[in-house]
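Hi Q.,

Before the meeting this afternoon, I wanted you to have the 2-acetamido-2-deoxy-beta-D-glucopyranose prediction in hand. No need to reply - just skim if you have a minute. The sequence and ligand are here:
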Amino acid sequence: MVLIGFLIPQSLRAGFTGIGVGAAYQGLRPVIEFMTFNFSMQAIDHIINSAAKSNYMSAGQINVPIVFRGPNGAAAGVGAQHSQCYAAWFAHVPGLKVLAPYSSEDARGLLKAAIRDPDPVVFLENELLYGESFPVSDEVLDSSFALPIGKAKIEREGKDVTITAFSKMVGYALQAAEILSKEGISAEVINLRSIRPLDRAAINASVRKTNRLVTLEEGFPQHGVGAEICMSVVEESFEYLDAPIERIAGADVPMPYAANLERLAVPQIEDIVRAARRACYRALPMTATA
Ligand SMILES: *[C@@H]1O[C@H](CO)[C@@H](O)[C@H](O)[C@H]1NC(C)=O
Ligand SMILES: *[C@@H]1O[C@H](CO)[C@@H](O)[C@H](O)[C@H]1NC(C)=O
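Predicted structure with the ligand bound:
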């Protein structure tokens, strides 16, 4: 069953999300499509209270195998109410799984896994990635292909600094890694794929290898995905860190409408390069923020 939110007035979003959750209680596997995740705010009561908590509150008697999907993240020139990343919002909630594909392989493998999963999954796509092409292997095209939930992918191996990213920011991290390689810094790029559950083991293993970490996300910094990753590394591998962890996130403001301010409010490739240099002590303190 697929319920499509495209061009439906905002007030109906709570309604069709509620219908979807009810259908999932009855054993269907609905896919709720929000035209964008901006509008999921109309329906957040159903996502959190009706979908995420029911398995626990029914002592395991009710499963809610539902997928909420749609474009998430900062777009271009749409202002504060239409440009934000909801990864940390939903990843805060026990009972939800939160996935964020970067490539075509991720989108295919993770969406199939989400639909098959017995629990509610928030599936955060990125509108600006819809227009990008990615190479796909025969394995990915095979009808049996699916990806595991909760496993990150090492998109690029490196030995000097780990960069964690998800969704569109994986592409930025890969471009930054290319620039860094010309300076002799070998960056390892982790595509998180799954925000909740988070692949703490993959992050842990990478940081134990590189001894440095830069976290990257588009969302607001406070209580964000980077904050959680930082704490996880402090708990698991603090003594392996050779430099302070660097966090790159969106600016802590509602998204500006003016294009010049908007650019300043979202992470740019040069921000990642500078943070990685700082982590590797390749930047002078005076120029660290220049
Ligand atoms: C919000 O809506 C705009 C306009 O449709 C879209 O470009 C953007 O991706 C959306 N962002 C989120 C977080 O839903
Ligand atoms: C981190 O790595 C160490 C050593 O391999 C291991 O003991 C620990 O369980 C790991 N932590 C996680 C969360 O994987």
